[in-house]
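Sample entry follows:

_____
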Amino acid sequence: MKSITVEKLVQVFSLEVLTGADQLRRPINRSRTHRPGLEFIGYFDFFPKKRVQILGQKEINYLHELSEEERKLRIGNIVKYRPPCFIVTTQQEGLTYLTQFCAEEGIPLLRTHERTPEFIAKLDGYLTKALAPETAVHGVCLNVFGMGILLRGHSGIGKSEIAHTLIGRGHRLVADDIVVLKKISPQTILGTHNEKNKEFLALRSIGLLNVVRVYGNKAFQDETRIALDIELTKWQKNSLNNELELESKFTEYLGVKIPHIEIQLQPGRDVVGLIEAAANNWNLRQQGYSAMEEFMSRLHNGK
């Protein structure tokens, strides 16, 4: 199971460490946070103890209103489960009692100035991506007309050169050579880079290009939802000539099916234009329009 450390959260979200600075290597392997509520009144049947615990203004105000003995009981009941960490939002003060309990149990107590709803949304989003199942594939990932495309094919077939032309037409590079695919939901695959190849495009005979330095920030995108898998293959005579695909094809990544098309390469063929056409056609299908269905309907109706 994938995990990250509490220390990573501290770095990414600039969290203030109130206690447990020597416990920041504790692992986090759950992608959602939890705000204890019923647990404060003693109901622990479904307490997700392995999640990051968020204490907002509601929770802290409740604890402030308790007597010292009652507060000790309520906090002690939660702390004994030793969750990865507690994070207090909206820069709340008066946390001496909470600091004491966390210090005794060796649990990091952290604080942020951000409001609870906004912080939970950001943190849940980050954890979903950071802990998502992932795999790496050889190819190029681009965002074309707002949709993520995974461009694959044998080494040397021209993926990076085609990507370079697409970037010149205003589309965006996500990753070249090694594309990291993350499953962030049962229907969603996210394409991104592996940090090392971020912004770089490798072109034979030219070398490495930093697309942001050459073409500006608009040439690069950090991640994109993969909507289409395009495989570049060598031209095969008498194959795919005037063929009208009636059945959709898919490639499966991490259990998620991605629409797949094959584009055969031949000198003089406008492959970049075909990729743009494929992207536009996919967008139309998402809006409920199918050129194939309309064409077949015309044939059926004799129009």
